[in-house]
Amino acid sequence: MSISSFDSRIPDPLTGLVGGIGGTPARQGGIFRATGNTLGGDFYLALLARGSAGIVLLMLATLVPVLAIAAVPSIRGFGAGFLRTTRWSPEHEAQKRDPRTGFLVHDEDGEVIKKTVPGVFGALPVIYGTVVSSALALLFAVPVSLGAALFLVRIGPWLTASISIISFLIEFLAAIPSIAYGIWGLFVVAPFLQNHLEPPLNNFFGHVPFLRFLHTDGQPIGRDMFNAGLILAIMILPIITAISRDVLRSVPRVQIEGTQALGATWWQSSWAMLRYGRSGLFGAVMLGLARAAGETMAVAMVIGNAIQIHSSIFRSAQTMSSLIANEFAEASTDMHRSALIEVALILLMMSLAFNVVARYLVVGRHSRAGGA
Amino acid sequence: MELTAYDAYSRGKSTIMFGLCVLSTGAILAALGLVVGYLISIGYKSVDVAFFTQAPVPPGGVGYPGGMLNGIVGTAILIGLASAVGIPIGLLAGVYLAEYSSNSWMASPVRFIADVLTGVPSIVVGILGYELLVVPLSHHYNGWAGAVALAFIMIPLVARTTEEMLLLVPRSYREASVALGATKARTILKVVLPAATGSVITGVMLAIARVAGETAPLLFTALGSRFIETNPNHPFPSLTVQIYRKAMEPYKEENRQAWAGILVLLLLIFVLNLMVRLAASPLLRGRHPRR
Amino acid sequence: MIRAKTIAASVTVLLGLGAGAFAQDVRLQGGGATFPAPIYQRWVTEYQRLHPEVKIDYQEIGSGGGIKGITDKTFDFAGSDAPLSKKELAKAGGAPSLVEIPTVAGAVVVAYNLPGYKGELKLDGPTLAGMYLGAIKTWHDPKITALNPGTNLPNLPITPVYRTDGSGTNYIWTNYLCGQSAEFNGTIGSGKTVEWPLGSGGPQNAGVTQIVQQTRGAIGYVELAYALQNRIPYAVLKNKDGNFVRPTGESVSMAGEGAVGNMKSNILAADIWNQPGAKAYPISSFTYIIVHKDLGILKDQRKAQALVQFLRWATTDGEKMAEQLDYAPLSPGVQKKVRQALDSLTLDGKPVATAR
């Protein structure tokens, strides 16, 4: 039996090579091939494990059809325009206007004619909202998380006998319910932004053309994309930090000592650590991003709920998740509900596509990259 | 620039980065302090004995405002039920992804799907639960549906974190185990999982904390109840839904109850976390690979 | 090895879980509108004090949720701030199979944030419409100063605040303004959710309240209880008769009295905004409870009896608690119609036999 990898994706700590000395037997079941124990514990564990993985597949298989069926009326009604339209106007009643002249129409008795204006729905503003708020959240959270993870793994142990208290505290952030974040964002962060941060930014950046996105372009409002990005960042910090910490902690000493032996600075060896663990770190960031994109309650309270696209991050906006949360319960027409479900479906598709592409770009063909 | 150029620029950069890492940790702790500090400041006054022993009383009623015992018991039971379903399935799926993926077509799709499922908005999970569990099966809101909705959120999260943590266990552990004649199942159960216990528990606790703080999935499945419920066949209360309702009321006293509820929820998770870590610490002693 | 303690604990848990199934309680589940939630909660707890075995729960998930609940039959009774539309009635089984009764009435008030402004602000419908359309941009606009002569309105821009989530309050507000301004009627229109050209939006009454409180020069529409509890000043509005009226229990009840004539058969829905009456408050509305006419769907005679008795009690004795919680009780004429509607509830074809 050749020394082949148990799992071709785990790099050997000593050599850092993926696949081991003898190469990677791709589909042979690895080192356990000769020890097969078909009717013993092996069988049951494999069965349970496969079954659980199957349940995950089943979860998606239940979710997608239910969403797809409910979204059909909207897909049929709006087609591809749904992704391009920026108007989101549920069905309502309004007075009839003559389409040619724009004047309000009256009937013979001079009474106003009220007609039902059918709903017009377009998802572009909320797609924009989700993308920008999630990007902001990652922008704020990822550097801070990775920095904290590095601290916990490299610096912390030298300072205190156990850094587990700090770790514990960081995980505590995950225990705060999303409504609490929403309340804090609404009552503390929004007034702060409105009164203390945004006015100076207006004075600074209002006149610089390329930095208009930092200008509030109107009254400072506090409940805007920036607020949402900030709150989301704080919400996803614990998950990215906790996983990154464990990933970095498992980087073999040998790797670090190797770089240090070559004369690396602290940062250079830390960077080597980050590169070594980039697959796990990528997983951590993906989980954080998923949380950010799917967050409903907290975002609904701090983002301003304005279905619009605006270049400034200090204007109100709306994300896909919080739009659904806001409007689903009271959606009065089937088309409205269907449009909201279509938004959910689009979010699902977007995350799938993003996941596949990002994983390929960052981690490469093997879902686990080798080390140094 | 080579990886290990040791010039003044690199040294300077290193010092700055070092400082930034310290600052980052400080920033996270500061954020925690700000948020929790604010929550404590608005909530502590309303946390009293009645809060833990009574059901809520509406404005104008006898014994107003009462407490949130219904929510406390409800959340505890819901987390219990959801974990009973979600943790085993999530763990096993994680084991599958980490240990059984080399000779299976399923692994890559399951990994992507798990990642995507962690990003499903919680309200969509609630809607799914309503359409599949409440309307067709039981014709009324019930606690089981709420627990299943929460488990739906837990499973992909636990699966992915477990996978990531299991993959951190060095290959040599598995090889050594095989060299000693262990079967695959034995290796996973007796060598790999124990080596990753601390990290796997972290993942599980993150999932529990996440699920304990969710409102939207429960709104459409368990609904909520002003009664202290222990029967999951009935509409089921939870701290988060209670908090949400009270926060949206016009009455200040009700709002204060909501802030108190948040603190109690935090306390609940804190205690749970502590208990789990203490219980697991004998398992962890001497296990974590100190390469 | 299963220890005795574990067995004991498991048995206790199982007993606890099963306890609900063995009790003699009658449980009813209702849900829906958020506006009347405080009084409904008061009612169900008071009723339980009088009849300890009747356990009614009401969950305020929004009017839409209530309507869905009665349609899907996941609720025994539902609350809605807006009367059911024709489509909703059809979907829930058709108007003849439902009973819709008003329970209390309330006011939508116009809250504002004008620092330093003392006294009552007077406004009227067309002016409000102008503000929300963007035609009236600052508080110094002549239309506003004309209504409030001799006062010192601050020179602030107007920020109209609206509800971003669908709601009965939106329905009432937009319908009122549609009647006050043809321009509003033609552009924004009316409905539970509409598109607003400008201003700032927040979810729920609490959100709107919070934004008005934090934004100088803001104006927003909220339920009376929110303005009172948060001590926000609210405007005095000009009603149909031309008088400026404050929103009080009395002025809202006045608005409701005129609606009796419009209430027919079992769907007692009536819009009571902009009603004639010297003291009627212009933005008033009822809130409704909807039940199925044939309570056989409850599959339990005791439940049906309890529900009918509760609703009867609520719309008579219960009305006495309305004012305390900032609601307007039903006027006697309306109460009579409600009683007739409740009398028409049947159980498998026969009227529901109750003590009264």
Architecture overview:
- The complex is a heterotrimer of chains A (372), B (291) and C (356).
- Chain A is mainly α and 372 residues long.
- Chain A contains eleven helices and four strands, in the order αββββαααααααααα.
- Chain A has three domains: 67 residues, no CATH class; 49 residues, no CATH class; 244 residues, MetI-like fold (Orthogonal Bundle).
- Chain B is mostly helical and 291 residues long.
- Chain B has one domain: Orthogonal Bundle (MetI-like fold).
- Chain C folds into two domains: 168 residues, 3-Layer(aba) Sandwich (D-Maltodextrin-Binding Protein, domain 2); 143 residues, D-Maltodextrin-Binding Protein, domain 2.
- In chain C, the strands form three sheets. In chain C, strands 2-1-3-11-4-8-6-7 form an eight-stranded mixed β-sheet. Chain C has a three-stranded mixed β-sheet with strand order 5-9-10.
- In chain C, α5 crosses α7.
- Chains A and C meet through β1, β2 and α4 of A and α3, α8, β7 and α9 of C.
Helix/strand layout:
The complex is a heterotrimer of chains A (372), B (291) and C (356).
Chain A: H1 41-78, E1 88-89, E2 92-95, E3 114-117, E4 120-121, H2 124-159, H3 164-175, H4 178-205, H5 225-249, H6 253-261, H7 266-276, H8 278-294, H9 297-302, H10 320-327, H11 334-363
Antiparallel strand pairs in A: 1-4, 2-3
Chain B: H1 8-43, H2 49-53, H3 69-99, H4 107-118, H5 122-138, H6 143-167, H7 171-179, H8 184-195, H9 197-212, H10 216-221, H11 239-247, H12 252-284
Helix pairs in contact in B: 1-12, 3-6, 3-9, 3-11, 4-6, 5-6, 6-9, 7-8, 9-12, 11-12
Chain C: H1 4-22, E1 26-32, H2 37-50, E2 54-59, H3 63-72, E3 77-80, H4 86-91, E4 98-112, E5 122-123, H5 125-133, H6 142-147, E6 159-163, H7 168-180, H8 182-187, E7 200-202, H9 204-214, E8 218-223, H10 224-229, E9 236-238, E10 244-245, H11 249-257, E11 284-292, H12 301-314, H13 332-343, E12 346-347, E13 350-351
Parallel strand pairs in C: 1-2, 1-3, 5-9, 6-7, 6-8
Antiparallel strand pairs in C: 3-11, 4-8, 4-11, 9-10, 12-13
Helix pairs in contact in C: 5-7
